[in-house]
Fold:
Amino acid sequence: MTVIEAILLMIFGMDFLDAISHAFSTLGTGGFSTKNNSIASFNSAAIDWICWTFMFLAGINFSLYYYIFIKKWNDITGNTEFKVYIAITLIAALLIGIFESPAYGSFLKALRYSFFQSSTIISSTGFATADFTTWSPASQAVIFALLFIGGSSGSTAGGVKVIRWVVIARQFKNEILKIMHPHGVFTIRLNKQVCRKDIVFTVTAFFFIYVLVVAVTTFIGAVFGLDILTAFTGAVTMCGNCGPGFNLLGPSCNYGFLAAPVKWVYSLVMIAGRLEFFTIAILFSPAFWKK
Structure:
């Protein structure tokens, strides 16, 4: 996939170094660019759509590509997370396209930027073709929500992961049903199969540590002078490895102005977020060192 993207990017105007660098950065959802203005520097709709395509693909569970190879189509079409990931991406892009149509002069032109920015955030890639902090409040709200979602499990994307939100949402539904029908038995089904009950406990534990890390990181940013929106979105984007945040950490800004202690904390949070917190939590557990 990396080779295919690099070839396509060279066909549509990038030189070899730019093409191979952006291809690696896209499939790895790293988001680093050879240009200060990221993908916007090339001002090419074709390059935008190519990068969008591979960012979207990088956010999918890579085991699904194996199912394609062995032609297990039912395992792909029946995959719960895959369907929800597609739905979130499409809905977010279409909403932003509608909201930003007046600014870009047409719905189709707005879609070029809405699809790119929604995918770059949900896949945690962090490329930019537009500064979404200049968009309408409604569009910014959509981007803000995507910061919390992340890509699919088993992908190169960071973030909370779609499957965890699915589990939490379905458990919420079950809790409502239990209140209405106290003697009922309700289960969570994923990929057309009943989910183990302990999965809910694991997901709940993840959300606890996620919220705790975001809160502490936000507080540290605020202590060193960041306004609350910058500090909060900076914390969220560090936990999810998304890249841009809001206000002073928007797509057209960088992290160079931050105080050294904040940079150290952000670096540690990025590592913890990429390891999904549990690995780091184990390292700080006394029980681990006693063994």
